[in-house]
Design brief:
The chain has 16 helices and 17 strands. The protein is of the alpha/beta class.
């Protein structure tokens, strides 16, 4: 397929929706001679922070001289962002080739009565195919949704990572923290180490399942921890303590935000465990990987007049962290928000957490069939100034004018909004 043909093919798969389960992807990979077994993996789940942690780990591995794949979702601007080898996106032509190759197996799977593979299953298989074809040594694989029934959960990783567990995707993973923790703990494999920054009830469940599977569980606050030290330009210096080893490392991280301190500590802990058998992963590689890591759209600061903050916060816990970071780094600035939220999110909690009465807000619809109507979202906001716009482009122009040259414009609410805005800003 050409790239354009592959996009049309994937768009047609949207009719199959989200259909959790492993039967289709397992059969698909069997027909493909199991490309996922041709490289080592690290599996990363979690409600928030899994993308940042995935990016940090991939950057550390690449800095170690290891040929490294990274699979993440969703993309911000284009599908090629989801499949990266040594920090280079898959090319459009290679992407089209991979999707075309996977499409050849669809008829066989349907014939066997398993139903048609979904878009995410096709993309996951394509990523495994591409990584195997490129000869990657390690791939860092981010879970798409939940864990136990996610398409990525066909791998047997070197380490399983669960960044944290909070309420999100309650329609798919359960209505309680315990049910969601059980879903995410589904990535824990027999005898495979687990690294987590989960807390409370979620951590209790992760510990129980780890014990049942004889998987050593390394826990934030017990086996390792992190703390912010100081700003270094638009980066932050973080101290990571490996408590059992009584070691402390100082790392400059190219990602801002208090939440990245914890994600950094998780990544360093994982790298430390891997480094015991993979000698190319040493302290200098960890330092280099963290100072060079890129993860666009997550508390991304674009200096200018106004200063622009782009953040993919799209659930209550994500916007809570975003608000804490805004209060920490921009507490004396006038804040204007460009907001776009999907209708299946907890809109009321999100806007009440993020927006203060003195703030100004422009609401738009993200580019998604699940987009909440701007007028409906706006009615839930109590702020100094609230308006809606008919397009993202128009909303960005209005919000920029409201922020003026001295204010801060924060764009948040959905990754579908973030991707569209970055296209406009970076063009």
């Amino acid at each position: 397929m050409t790239y354009e043909e592959s996009l049309a093919y994937l768009a047609n798969l949207n009719k199959f929706g989200i259909n959790l389960g492993l039967a289709r992807i397992e059969k698909l990979l069997e027909l493909m001679d199991h490309p996922e077994r041709k490289f080592k993996t690290i599996h990363v789940a979690g409600t928030n922070g899994k993308g940042s942690t995935t990016a940090m780990l991939a950057s550390i591995l690449t800095a170690s001289g290891i040929k490294t794949g990274m699979y993440t979702s969703p993309h911000l601007s284009q599908y090629t962002e989801r499949m990266i080898v040594n920090e280079h996106e898959i090319s459009p032509s290679q992407f089209g080739e991979a999707i075309g190759y996977i499409s050849e197996f669809m008829g066989k799977i349907v014939e066997e009565g398993l139903g048609h593979p979904t878009e995410f299953e096709v993309l996951t298989a394509a990523a495994f195919h591409y990584f195997a074809k490129c000869g990657v040594e390690y791939a860092v694989i981010e879970v798409g949704l939940g864990g136990i029934l996610d398409s990525t959960n066909v791998i047997v990783p070197e380490i399983s990572v669960i960044t944290n567990v909070t309420l999100d995707h309650t329609d798919k993973c359960g209505n309680t923290l315990g049910e969601i923790a059980h879903h995410k703990s589904g990535i824990i494999k027999q005898g495979i180490p687990v690294v987590t920054a989960a807390r409370g009830q979620a951590l209790d469940i992760i510990k129980v399942i780890s014990q049942e599977k004889s998987a050593t569980c390394y826990r934030y606050g017990e086996h390792f921890s992190g703390r912010f030290l100081e700003m270094v330009g638009h980066r932050q210096k973080v101290a990571v303590e490996l408590l059992e080893q009584e070691e402390t490392g100082m790392f400059v991280v190219n990602l801002l935000g208090g939440h990245q301190v914890e994600n950094c500590a998780v990544a360093v802990m994982v790298a430390n465990i891997l480094g015991k058998s993979e000698k190319r992963i040493d302290i200098s590689a960890i330092e280099k990987g963290l100072i060079e890591v890129q993860w666009p759209g997550r508390f991304e600061v674009i200096p200018g007049r106004p200063t622009i903050i782009i953040d993919g916060a799209h659930n209550p816990d994500g916007v809570r962290v975003l608000r804490e970071n805004l209060d920490e780094f921009f507490k004396d600035k006038e804040l204007v928000f460009l907001l776009g939220i999907l209708q299946d999110k907890d809109v009321e909690t999100m806007v009440n957490t993020l927006i203060r009465s003195q703030n100004k807000v422009v609401v738009v619809a993200p580019i998604s069939e699940r987009a909440g109507k701007p007028e409906s979202v706006a009615r839930k906001i109590q702020a100094a100034h609230v308006e809606t716009a008919d397009s993202i482009d128009e909303g960005l122009k209005r919000a920029t004018l409201l922020a003026g040259e001295e204010g801060v414009l924060c764009i948040a609410g959905s990754l579908y909004l973030i991707g569209a805005v970055r296209k406009i800003i970076c063009r």
